[in-house]
Amino acid sequence: MSLNRKLATRLLVYGIAIGFALLSAFPFFWMVITAFKANRDLYNPTNNPFLFNEPPTLDHIRLLFFNTPYVRWLGNTSLVGIIVVLITVVLAVPAGYSLARLIGRWGERLAIMIFLAYLIPPTLLFIPLSRVISLLGLQDSLWSLVLVYPSFTVPFCTWLMMGFFKSIPLELEDAALVDGCSRLGALVRIIFPISISGILTTVIFAFTLSTQEFVYALTFISSSAHKTISVGVPTDLIRGDVFYWGSLMAAALLPSVFIALIYNAFLDRFIAGITGGALK
């Protein structure tokens, strides 16, 4: 009975895991099928949409790379994402440490206020921020996105890092201080090296949040050469009532695979960073 129960439990766990994996992989499968299907195959309602009924084609990839500034969009997105990540790490890591260790009980209240600031939707904030961007003369400039994106990456990553720093025993710092380290020395030599998982999680979250943002990019960027992927793809590949579905799926597939590989490469550290704050 016990053996049967263990077997049933294991089958249930594997069944849920396989079902979730198939559900998660289906968007990638659909993007691959659509990106490499010929238009005659893609738009024929009698064909099986899950199979290649005609030989695959690279026409949609050629349209994407040779008839749109897609490479430029990739460069713009990467540039904005990297700068935003640097700003976020520089601000969020010390802020999270301060809220976790130096302010006491007020740290938690301030952390909740910071997280609530993150919850304010961009559909409300873009109106006052557009006035700020206009006064600074940053319309249609990537620097407008560099200025605005930390407004939602820093609060979230500060809250994330605060939870991670709380999971690190305070006795480690006390031992370093007793051995002669200053507060800054203990932070650099003891805390940061064992916080790599949390910092890496912050980097991944800040990069993905900035690369997928749509409202601010649509509001502040108008020329095609300055657009990021999140805006350039839907605005340049949907022309009136004509949807270039193959190129749209190819444009979404390429950065999605890159992001998925990054997540997979640092999966163990990412899980440790996400769950670090929950263990406290």
Automatic annotation (TrEMBL):
Protein name per its UniProtKB record: Carbohydrate ABC transporter permease
SUPFAM superfamilies: MetI-like (SSF161098)
GO cellular component, one term: plasma membrane
Keyword terms, alphabetized: Cell membrane, Membrane, Transmembrane, Transmembrane helix, Transport
Organism classification: Bacteria, Bacillati, Chloroflexota, Caldilineae, Caldilineales
Localization (cell): Cell membrane
Gene3D superfamilies listed in its UniProt record: MetI-like (1.10.3720.10)
Segments forming domain ABC transmembrane type-1: 74-266
InterPro entries found in the cross-reference section: BP-dep_ABC_trans_perm, MetI-like, MetI-like_sf
Main location: membrane
Residues that span the membrane, as ranges: 12-33, 73-98, 110-130, 142-165, 186-209, 242-263
Entry's family note: Belongs to the binding-protein-dependent transport system permease family.
GO BP term (any one): transmembrane transport
Topological relation to the membrane, as annotated: Multi-pass membrane protein
One Pfam family from the record: BPD_transp_1
